[in-house]
Amino acid sequence: SAAQPQTSRPGGTPEELDVLIVGAGFAGLYQLDHLRRLGFRVALYEAGADLGGIWHWNCYPGARVDTYAQLYQYSREDLWRDWEYSELYPGWSELRDYFHYVDRKLDLSRDIRFGTRVTAAEFSSDLNRWIVQSGDGRVVRPRFLVMCTGFAAKPYLPEIAGLEEFGGAWHHTGLWPQGGLDLTGKRVGVIGTGASGVQVIQEAGRQAAHLTVFQRTPNLALPMRQRKLDHAEHERMKAHYPEWFALRSRTFAGFDYDMIPKNALEVSAAERRATYEALWEQGGFVPWLGTYQDMFSNEAANLTAYEFWRDTVRARIKDPTLAEKLAPTTPPHPFGVKRPCLEQWYYEVYNQSNVRLVDLNEDPIERVTRTGVRTRSGEHPLDILVMATGFDSLTGGLTAIGLRGTEGETLGQKWGRGVRAHLGMASAGFPNLLYIYGPQSPSAFCNGPTCAELQGEWVVACLEYLRRHDLTRIEATHAAEEDWRGHVQEMTETSLFPRARSWYMGANIPGKPRELLAYPGGLPMYLQKTRDCAEAGYSGFTLA
Ligand code: N01
């Protein structure tokens, strides 16, 4: 289709599409490009004003990716050949440049409707189509609905009394003002010390007149080892790209390295220490996803990693009381089962005299006032309050949309009793709805662009198969999704993941069912299962 999608105007006849894609991040753009090439009549709706998904919304100070540059892009040579990020861990602005570059190369925007949020969708069994409504009053009828809304499309704001009375500026990191907000010389408060909080805190530490950090759980942050990349280094790396990209599907988390095929306690204490030091030196996610294979299942093994982390970090913090709060003697939770983030100068920030850490466990927030935040110990005056409080992750972006299936309920109602999703991509009672990077797929444990491509490839092949066989309907069976749920639960029970109150477990959102929301079996096992399913003529699905 060469023209802007001719979606019907309010009151007109709804347009029929083969596929409606939702979300213009890595996954959605992959779908758009591939499906369009195959001749499907397709459009993409994006709530934001521009490309980039998460990188459109999360433009808070310090926002940058924590996958290294070489693997934070599409694996197609015609795209990587001419692209160079300036740093190993690029910031949000450069990531947006990358999306614009891809757009120029693949001419994607002409089939994207920006500023268009899907507000409701219902499957019509008569038409065998979705009837999709968007915020601008349009209705469109795609045969298939492919949701690419990512894992963090729904920001979470805890109920804190008085927030609306605050006289300064307050923002959630995931809904940061597009025009930016200058922290220079301001009294800044940050609630939350997840990956977003850590990144804002580092910048605020350098810019603000005074910084107050409200911490509930310390982040077990790892060294980023950020550096500039020049052309020569890009050329050296590009010689290896084909091999690195190929490796992704054979590693647990879709990177070009994997866990050490040994148990931590199998080796001597001296060897273990030398290994931890070497991993630390490499930095990034390597000390997390490239460490001993039993890290997420054996508590004693895990403790050795925690102790190494704790002692290494403590050496950077001057005040012993602060050191105990940031890197406690006993682990707040096992190492790595709550998402660690990457830091650059995070711990040094707390050595500054204008920075204060409030431990919410002993000094809880009572309310936000007109002039700041009041905790039990008193008032903290602020000009800017940053809510780095995370997301209703993995399910929230999908359940926030009123997706209504054939069994009388919405996806949100169904998943309110726990996620059911065959292969983490489709749910019974919701025919012709597929989602990428969703719950019970590798998602949170998989590098984003890797899964956008590898899960994306499966979805494209599935839609092609249906077309080739003149089929217009695909639906997961109840039995298949219960089996998949059981498979995920079985692996979860032998892991340490339930031991942290994390968004991986849905535990950050009051009332959300506690269950591991990402597939813990690793990418190779997941991909094998999706291949087996397709080769068996899409087992666990009913086709018609
Ligand atoms: O969100 P989070 P995030 N009172 O849920 C605290 C990715 N990401 O936006 O831990 C006080 O991790 C909460 O405390 P606790 C990455 O995958 C990547 O930071 O629940 N505090 C926690 O500290 C990441 O994991 C990048 O005790 C409250 C924080 O808010 C995911 O996105 C950058 C509270 C929320 O942390 C989400 O990260 C940013 C309350 N009522 C994000 N409620 C990079 O690529 C919550 N908190 C680098």
TrEMBL record:
Coiled-coil stretches noted in the UniProt entry, renumbered to this chain: none
Named cofactor requirement(s): FAD
Example GO molecular function: flavin adenine dinucleotide binding
Superkingdom, taxonomy of origin: Bacteria
Pfam families, per database record: FMO-like
Gene3D superfamilies, per database record: FAD/NAD(P)-binding domain
Keyword tags: FAD, Flavoprotein, Monooxygenase, NADP, Oxidoreductase
Family: Belongs to the FAD-binding monooxygenase family.
Protein name (database record): NAD(P)/FAD-dependent oxidoreductase
Organism this protein belongs to: Roseicella aquatilis
